[in-house]
Amino acid sequence: MFWQLLTIFINVVTPVFILVLIGYVAGPPLQLEARTLSRTAYYTFVPAFVFSSVSRVHVDAHLALQMILYATFMVIATSALAFAVAKLMRRSNEMVAAYVMIAAFGNVGNFGLSLIQFRLGEAAQLAGTIYFVVISSVAFAICVAAAASVRGSGLSAMLLVFKTPALLALIPAAFFSLSHIEVPLVLARSSTLLGDAMISSMLVALGVQLAEVKKLQITIDTFAATAVRLIGGPIIAAILVIPFGFTGVERSAGIIQAAMPAAVLTSIIALEHHIVPDFVTTTVLFSTLVSLITLTLVLSWV
After folding, report:
1. How many other CB atoms are there within 10 angstroms of residue 167's CB atom?
2. What is the DSSP secondary-structure string of the chain?
């Protein structure tokens, strides 16, 4: 058991964190801007990756719908758990919203896709990509809704969900996948070249973003919110697998995505809406560090 965990830690988890560490160390002296790196990936590499991954694989429409529903319920259930925990701890409305945002939005892009690829191989790439798009879209909507419930604004921001580049790229990708029409070679090769740059660029960008964190204050709330994200998430995902009847890569990829640390985008939304940004940013960094341990355990389990 020990050697299995050590092997997974070294061969699966460590390569991901090495790229994050490179961004963390190189960012300040090279004066790299996380916003520029993230926006480049968000608007070019990510939609290209989604199109390339989904369009070239012919997926059963019924299975795809099941995966979409599974991922949606998973995010909602994890958010509900965070809401309940924060309420039981009698936290303020701002803190309740922060708990929900942290629980909803896992780092399913930077971490999730790379870990799924390393652990499960190319066969799981489609499942991981579908979960990535659905979780990101639903989580973004929940985060904005949680912030809006405190600040009383955000309808226009909510509508941005439907303008997400990855979600828009899914439409033509689904057409090619479901219709069994071959993607034109020039489009297939262009999207593949761009998509291949996504994971490495996003991991380095994450390191640069974490290097920009200035103020850290670990509290009981940091531990509680992190526990919901890193422990509650995969447990809920494993329970939901039963009624959906998933096995193989659909099951494993879903649980892995549910086990991701909080996404950096969560802190950006918190800052934008003034929802205790210091707490959210601290929890994002703390959950990322703690996930070195929890992800190793989850990866050995699935």
Report:
1. 17
2. -HHHHHHHIIIIIHHHHHHHHHHHHHHHHHT--HHHHHHHIIIIIHHHHHHHHHHTS---HHHHHHHHHHHHHHHHHHHHHHHHHHHHTT--HHHHHHHHHHHH-B-IIIIIIHHHHHHH-GGGHHHHHHHHHHHHHHHHHHHHHHHHHHHS--HHHHHGGGG-HHHHHHHHHHHHHHHTPPPPHHHHHHHHHHHHTHHHHHHHHHHHHHHT-------HHHHHHHHIIIIIHHHHHHHHHHHHT--HHHHHHHHHHHTPPBPHHHHHHHHHHTS-HHHHHHHHHHHHHHHHHHHHHHHHH-
3-state secondary structure at position 262: strand
Domains of the chain: 34-210+217-301 (1.20.1530.20)
- Contact between 284 and 263 under an 8 Å Cβ cutoff? The reply is yes
What are the pLDDT digits (tens) for 57-110? 777 778 888 999 999 999 999 999 999 999 999 999 999 999 999 999 998 887
How many C-beta atoms surround the C-beta of residue 22 within 10 A? 15
The pTM of this model reads 0.83
What DSSP state is assigned to residue 81?
H
Rounded distance between C-alpha atoms, residue 48 and residue 195, angstroms = 5
The CA distances from residue 286 to 213, 217, 237, 295, in Å, are 11, 10, 22, 14
Output the pLDDT for position 160. 62
Indicate the burial class of 118 (C-beta count within 10 angstroms; 0-12, 13-18, 19 or more).
middle
CA–CA dist 271, 233 (Å, integer) = 24
